[in-house]
User: Which sequence fits this backbone?
């Protein structure tokens, strides 16, 4: 599902259900999960199993993936990547840093956001666009899709800036054709000598999930 949203240079690995739940952790990873509840430990292990399989596909020896600042995964030198997990699904996407400047992926259960959440994650004009999109495509939970797109944008943003990006600091314009544009409302990162003012992304729905992805090129 995630693979179709990203350039061919990106390697993706997905896991559904309990696939990979028995994957052993490296000692330093296990130490981080010593007090975590079973669900958290399982998701932590499965998504890292996906990431290590993606490393192997890129010819990189599997190794620990430890969370750094704000929980961002620490990737081996020369790689850029992103991970996501939700109920029944985990995925990792990795690429050689020479091929992309950054990427972000997110997956969510395809259902409406809890009552009262949308106003806290959306700009007024974003919410208005969602109402118009819902009239065109009532089969899509556009509020959940907007939330997912903002998560993907943040995951692509943080490795480039090392800074927090608030939900209100990116204006997401979703399109019914499976694409979206995120206009940055704060100064963007410098990439390839240029300051970015927006990210481009893609989205899809499948198997009861909604997924989004952002790939940032060096150009």
Assistant:
């Amino acid at each position: 599902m995630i693979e179709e949203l990203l350039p061919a240079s990106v390697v993706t690995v997905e896991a559904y259900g309990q696939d990979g739940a028995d994957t052993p952790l490296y000692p330093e990873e296990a130490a981080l999960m010593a007090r975590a509840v079973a669900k958290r430990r399982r998701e932590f292990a499965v998504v890292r199993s996906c990431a290590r399989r993606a490393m192997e596909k890129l010819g990189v020896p599997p190794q620990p993936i430890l969370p750094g600042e704000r929980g961002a995964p620490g990737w081996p030198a020369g790689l850029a990547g992103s991970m996501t997990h939700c109920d029944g699904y985990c995925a990792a996407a990795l690429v050689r840093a020479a091929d992309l400047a950054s990427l972000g992926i997110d997956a969510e259960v395809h259902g409406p956001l809890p009552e009262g959440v949308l106003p806290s994650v959306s700009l007024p004009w974003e919410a208005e666009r969602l109402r118009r999109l819902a009239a065109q495509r009532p089969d899509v939970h556009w509020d959940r899709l907007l939330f997912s797109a903002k998560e993907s944008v943040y995951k692509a943003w943080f490795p480039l800036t090392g800074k927090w990006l608030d939900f209100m600091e990116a204006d997401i314009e979703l399109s019914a054709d499976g694409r979206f544009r995120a206009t940055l409302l704060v100064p963007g990162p410098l990439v390839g000598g240029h300051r970015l003012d927006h990210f481009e992304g893609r989205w899809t729905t499948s198997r009861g999930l909604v997924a989004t992805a952002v790939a940032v090129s060096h150009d």
User: Anything to note?
Assistant: The CA atoms of residues 29 and 66 lie 7 Å apart. The longest strand covers residues 198-206. DSSP finds five helices and ten strands in the chain.
